[in-house]
Prior knowledge:
This protein is of the alpha/beta class.
Amino acid sequence: MPDILICENIHGAAVEVLSLQFEVSFLPDLWKDSVELSKRIGDYRALIVRNQTQVTAALLAAGSKLVVVGRAGVGLDNVDVAAATRAGILITFTPDQNAVSVAELAMGLMLSLARMIPAANQDTKNGNWNRQMFVGMELYGKTIGIVGAGKIGYLTARRAQAFGMKVLAYDPFISRDSILLSELNAELVSLDELLARADIVSCHLPATPGTVGMFNAERFEKMKPTATFVNTSRGEVVVESDLLGALESGQIAGAAMDVRSKEPPQAGGLERLPNLILTPHVGAFTQEAQDRVTRAICEDVARVLDGKPAQNAVNKLSN
Length: 319
Ligand code: MLT
């Protein structure tokens, strides 16, 4: 009898180890066909997903033998945790394992915007030597506004501080004695103040009813015309048409987006903007982060199937 279904591209040594103990079906494209996934899920005790499978109440209901769903990543916007709890299915995830990689990408995007690295690369490869076209900006001495001061926000702030940046943070869920503020000498401010003062706004928010659409025209208007905006968190927090407007009108100077409101995105105008850098949701895509994430999720799923408590359970089940 099969035990575990992996319906996205999650592989590596940890999956091989898991396969020694359990019968694992590796169907990396199955997430694309929700009907077929629903048909098959009833055979399995565990499901392992990344962020593309929609783990809906209906899918969980079809998983009549499901005991655990492992989310290889940190965002839970694709998993109906409440429905899982009602169905007695444990959700486990990897809260910290890719945080360094995402923070490093955020820094890379900030540097890319400040020094126009993608445009300079393309122009030079086109045979030009236009040094005067690429007079950039230092990060040193600038102010970064961290929106969402969880683990990734914290790690980004630490790296920004190493560049000599002043750190502002907005997060309604952290207190003034949090480690971010004390260790990094960061200033906790309102969102309006952060937007008004930051030279770079770096977004580290989950997609929740309170954050979806947060970066709209009104918010971009509050930023300095010289400021840039970086989003390595969730695409849904940005109203993309409003970002397009803010970049076209010069309301803000530039932006970098690793995530989109719909992934993969439809062409909608953003891709033709010279002051916007786009990457395909690769914040967590380093070998190191993928190894850590895969190991953690495989170990946790194995633990639950063995009747042991999970290390990183998201929900609490009443027995
Ligand atoms: C995450 O939520 O961990 C990242 O966005 C990466 C992913 O979903 O694969």
